[in-house]
């Protein structure tokens, strides 16, 4: 229906800049970093056409230097949340009725602003506020976010173009309406791209949004709103609020016009939200859409035939990039006895070569974990592993929060395949390894499937195609994203639609058309050109 009439730009993945020494992109991001480190931003609530400063503020502090204050953000009261809802609803009709190509243009412009003039600034904000090294900031805040925006426009046009069959007597068509009400987006600290995409994907399909970013991602959330505004996003389409999570959520879910939840965060919080929505179901105008991605206990399974260097690289990158704070991070690994001595040696060499410190120093692979609560949790599990007879810390195990929340990359070796750190999501640079007998490959696959309540990502390293096939079949329900001979992180928009099942979420596949379909409510329209004028069918005779 749309193809050939509008020449929509073809989505392509944004190239990753390398930030090599003396490169212009390195100079630009370091200049932005230094400027933003000292400028002391003040982040308001964004409600309708207002930037509201309540005076009730919290400090924004970098995890790698928690005594340094880079800004403040303002906290909402219940009245502000109610105002955000009413402003969103007041904006809904005009926004929903805007021609789809006009909405698309806003988000395509957003992508180009990030690719160009805002690239250094959004990367620097992510480095400062979330303690990502430059590579992790680049692949997240720039490349993945650009990809989300570009590909979602293409997915949107494909959805609208999907129309039913018609013949000469009847015209059938599908209208992809936005949801009746508003969408509530709750976003995490660990990906700037996810923080922007959760409200933007719903808005792109004509919805209005109340967005609550993580308190630990406010710095880059402010940059996202700056870019949306420059791209021409109308006021009231995406309303941003900060404050007590329980108060915000209870106020939002009490609204009769609540129509959808777009969530990334912890399993426990998501289940509580689902329960609250269920308890309020008789109050809503419609059945709310509930979309959530909620973490994982992601595995790496190494077959005796595996290439050791490739397996080690996949394990080390998967477990320790961004301090293990990706929901897809490798946190449990299963190594065959025959390869263990070689793998242990190479993992040890790799980890000992990693430098840790501020992301401003491009020599640092590891920086800080996100906040003190995370630091303390990780420290408690590390200390327990030092005491337990069925676990041994073979690499790392040290931590220090005097300046920043630094936890060494830590490897725990366990003789118990159900040891607590083989099952519990830690969200930090802690990897637990279990050594299996080579002959028990098949049994170990079953063990992997049965150990965790999560089912987000997993990786298989093998050069034996029969083993790969067996693992792919046996681990069918153990991971929503399965990687063969690659690390279990790094899903690329448009290439590996992302999401998991079990306790890992509703598996609505961000980075694909499937996610956008959750934010529309199709209406079928049938138009008959020559209508019948007699109720009698031929079988009745005259």
TrEMBL record:
Q: Which PROSITE patterns match?
A: ALDEHYDE_DEHYDR_CYS (PS00070), ALDEHYDE_DEHYDR_GLU (PS00687)
Q: Indicate the residues that form the catalytic site.
A: 293
Question: Sorted alphabetically, which Pfam families does this protein's record hold?
Answer: Aldedh (PF00171)
Q: Which domain of life is it from?
A: Bacteria
Which reactions appear under catalytic activity for this entry?
L-glutamate 5-semialdehyde + NAD(+) + H2O = L-glutamate + NADH + 2 H(+)
What pathway does the UniProt record associate with this protein?
Amino-acid degradation; L-proline degradation into L-glutamate; L-glutamate from L-proline: step 2/2
In this protein, which residues make up the domain named Aldehyde dehydrogenase? 59-518
Key words, A-Z = NAD, Oxidoreductase, Proline metabolism
Q: To which protein family does this belong?
A: Belongs to the aldehyde dehydrogenase family.
Return the InterPro entries for the record.
Ald_DH/histidinol_DH, Ald_DH_C, Ald_DH_CS_CYS, Ald_DH_CS_GLU, Ald_DH_N, Aldehyde_DH_dom, P5CDH/ALDH4A1, Proline_metab_enzyme
EC number(s) recorded for this UniProt protein? 1.2.1.88
Its protein name is L-glutamate gamma-semialdehyde dehydrogenase
